[in-house]
Write a structure and sequence with these properties.
By secondary structure, this protein is an all-alpha fold. The chain is built from one helix and no strands.
Length: 64
Amino acid sequence: MRRNNRDLLNDFVIPIFSFFIWKPIKLLWKFLSDIAEKVYGRVVMAISAVIFSYIIYLISLNIS
């Protein structure tokens, strides 16, 4: 029984590719997206705090 290249590809190359290359990429992507979510949330909070304090500053200038 002779195995052709497609069987070899399906039996060995694709599982090895998916396990050693695709899994770490997915894990790394999940890790980086979690970090990015946290950083993005902090950046948005900081920007909104700056805008809010600037608005309060403008209001206080108008009142005085």
